[in-house]
Design goal:
By secondary structure, the chain is of the alpha/beta class. The chain contains 12 helices and 9 strands. It folds into 2 domains: 7-208, Rossmann fold, CATH 3.40.50; 219-289, Helicase, Ruva Protein, domain 3. The strands form 2 sheets. Strands 4-3-2-5-6-9-7 form a 7-stranded mixed β-sheet, with helices on both faces. A two-stranded antiparallel ribbon has the order 1-8. The radius of gyration is 21 Å and the shape is elongated. It starts with 6 loop residues before the first helix and ends with a helix.
């Protein structure tokens, strides 16, 4: 089978099947073998690994993964791509294609069935409109994951790895860094895709922490605090948390918690580190318990 990372081969497959790109699925296929090599090497895929690929498209990266992994499970939402994948992946007996929406797949059961419950590696060229729900879904479901290596919009990759006090810092940065160590491994210009997206992209590798960097009494509470403090970025933390329908703390309680931490009453959420959000969460948790 011809390598699909070469643009001419991709065009031939698309013409053969009269394939139409679906805007609603955010389809942009990779046509650059250097980028594909970079993704595979960054993900450290070995013959021991089961890889979950999200959105294989016509199988461009799936071919590379199949060459390097023990087993590849590719989840593709677009029915029109299934016959194409059967064709482009016919030489590989270690690939399983599932026609399903990744957000509805029981990944834990899949890892159990295909990998004996051991940690899997996730590799994907993600549709940009749904990047955050997919990544957060993978982390929050506590599926056994070793790492997630994904192509995302450049600005989203930046957001995942920045720290406090920067304009890109937000709930996504904190959530990703709570679960994993983020590292941008490649920047990818629009001409590496077909059709060309309007924005630059980046490959980011998220290596799962074996233990979260902060241990909190109530993880859900901490994330509610984080979301509330960035929902209204321009407001002080006291007002942001007080206005949130998800929380039930008075201004006095929040002010007292900040005072306990030695922080100013006028501080904004974007100034707090993950550790400080953890501490704030525990103080407020204890207040409610009393």
């Amino acid at each position: 089978m011809a390598t699909l990372g070469i643009p001419q081969n991709t065009i031939e497959v698309l013409q053969k099947y009269k394939f139409n790109f679906q805007k609603k699925f955010g389809q942009n296929f990779l046509i650059d073998t250097h980028v594909l090599d970079k993704i595979i090497s960054s993900a450290n895929v070995t013959k021991e690994d089961m890889v979950l690929e999200i959105g294989p498209g016509i199988g461009t990266m799936t071919q590379y993964l199949a060459e390097n992994a023990r087993k590849v499970v590719a989840v593709e939402i677009d029915k029109a791509l299934i016959p194409i994948l059967e064709d482009t992946l016919q030489e590989y007996d270690n690939v399983k294609v599932i026609n399903e929406d990744i957000l509805k797949v029981d990944i834990r059961a899949l890892a159990e069935e295909e990998n004996g419950g051991k940690a899997i590696k996730v590799v994907a060229n993600l549709p940009y409109y749904i990047t955050t729900p997919i990544i957060m879904g993978l982390f929050e479901s506590h599926v056994p994951i070793d790492s997630i290596t994904v192509m995302v919009q450049k600005e989203v990759a930046d957001r995942m790895q920045v720290g406090p006090g920067t304009k890109d810092y937000g709930a996504l940065s904190l959530a990703v860094q709570y679960y994993a160590k983020p590292e941008i491994v490649a920047n990818v210009p629009p001409n590496c895709f077909m059709p060309r997206p309007n924005v630059g992209s980046a490959v980011i590798r998220l290596t799962r922490h074996s233990e979260p960097p902060v241990v909190v009494k109530d993880e859900k509470l901490m994330f509610r605090l984080i979301r509330a403090s960035f929902n209204q970025r321009r407001k002080t933390l006291v007002n942001g948390l007080n206005n949130s329908p998800e929380l039930c703390f008075s201004k006095e309680e929040i002010a007292k918690a900040l005072e306990t931490m030695g922080l100013s009453q006028t501080i904004r959420g974007e100034a707090l580190t993950l550790e400080q959000f953890g501490e704030l969460s525990d103080i407020l948790y204890d207040m409610k318990r009393k």
